[in-house]
Description:
This protein is an alpha/beta fold.
Amino acid sequence: MAKTKQRAGPGSVAIYPGSFDPLTHGHLDLIERGARIFPRFIVAILKNPEKKALFSLAERLRLLRDEVKDVPGVEVDSFSGLLVDYARAREATVLVRGLRAVSDFEYEFQMALMNRRLDEVIETVFMMPREDYSYVSSRLVKEVASLGGDVSGLVSRGVHRALMAKLRGVRRSR
Ligand code: PNS
């Protein structure tokens, strides 16, 4: 496997990978912070046919693009396969991941070290979202919304609208 040669440094292209099913205020906060540090910040949605998502890839791409269209330097894309392969293809040397709480640490630590083993030049950078969002996850947003709880302060208006419509559709199809 060809390795990345250029090391991470000022001006590096960064990738913020994830499922974004759906995008939350925590993700958006991280995108805004990341884009202030990295001149090119690629938000990359994993195409994973094995993982059952509530929103299709096309829907997630559209929702994300709508939300970040005014954030300079941010691009939205999707990828499949190994993240380090995608990073190399995009000439990115930084992977950004959010750390909300200590409970995130173990999984993130494993992923960061595995990715480093696969390509030692690619650095993982952890960033913390605003503390108000430290408990917010896509999984909880979906669970609470599906049980009738109010998640309007945790996702954008566009995502909220899409989430309500999606859950109505899911209920109808049962
Ligand atoms: O938002 P998520 O679901 O926590 O994101 C996980 C993601 C997409 C970053 C991770 O599953 C990933 O990178 N998948 C791509 C396949 C890969 O490279 N796996 C090895 C990672 S060590």
